[in-house]
Amino acid sequence: MNEAAQIKKEGSIRRIKALVIKEFFQIIRDPSSILISLLLPMILLFLYGFGVSLDLNHLRLGLVLEETTVDAISFAESLKNSPYFEVRMAKDRRSLEDLIIAGKIRGIVVVPSYFSAFKKRTDQPAPIQVIADGSEPNTAAFVQNYVLGAWNIWLQQEKINQNLKGLPLVNPQPRFWYNEELISRNFLVPGSLAIIMTLIGTLLTALVVAREWERGTMEAMMATPVGIYELLFGKLIP
């Protein structure tokens, strides 16, 4: 019984080896498989690396200053100096509404006339208005969060300029050891390598099986003792 199983195992290995050799010869005769296995992963990796990004830089914002006090101008300058925004000044929000409808800007920040009066009150929310394009909810959420972050940074700097008045006793500063700049591309590409290799392997296997049917050689192999699993291993190994 053991001898019969050993003979069956050796025969299966020989058949798989013969299929692998046949596949190598077919790959050499048909260079398109080599192009797909080499060129397509590079294209997909380029698309995943440079075409897919979760970072938003240079958000086009409209800024309306309803008062021109020192505090309002200081906050406006902090937005202008931020690498995340491209600020377009306007006298009133009506002149910017057409731009946001046309998609030329992503949001509007309004600094109201009572900005200085409410700025130093910690029991009140930020005295600024953020208007975002709701037709793109993801971008609108980014605009809201980025402006809120810019507001918190500016308010923190104002407290520092006031001799640390009102600063929290504990100020946590998390640090990322990998990808310290938090570029989303560096997070996406390593994981996409496994996805691309899985996709290419599946595509090539399906392609060579389809070609067997097109050339009529699949019927010839079905007449041989080659089993389904042996055929799959013979296609996958090369």
TrEMBL record:
**Family annotation (InterPro entries):** ABC-2_transporter_component, ABC2_TM
Asked if the Swiss-Prot or TrEMBL record annotates the protein with the keyword Cell membrane, the reply is: yes
Q: Which Pfam families does the UniProt record give? A: ABC2_membrane_3
Q: Which residues form the ABC-2 type transporter transmembrane domain?
A: 32-237
| Origin superkingdom | Bacteria
Membrane topology summary: Multi-pass membrane protein
Q: Name one GO cellular component term.
A: plasma membrane
| Membrane-traversing stretches | 34-54, 187-210
State the compartments where it is located. Cell membrane
Listed A to Z, the keywords are: Cell membrane, Membrane, Transmembrane, Transmembrane helix
Q: Does the keyword Cell membrane apply?
A: yes
GO MF term (any one): ABC-type transporter activity
Q: Which PANTHER family match?
A: MEMBRANE COMPONENT OF ABC TRANSPORTER YHHJ-RELATED, MULTIDRUG ABC TRANSPORTER PERMEASE YBHS-RELATED
**Name recorded for this polypeptide:** Inner membrane transport permease YbhS
Taxonomic lineage is: Bacteria, Pseudomonadati, Chlamydiota, Chlamydiia, Parachlamydiales
In the UniProt record, what gene is named as encoding this protein? ybhS
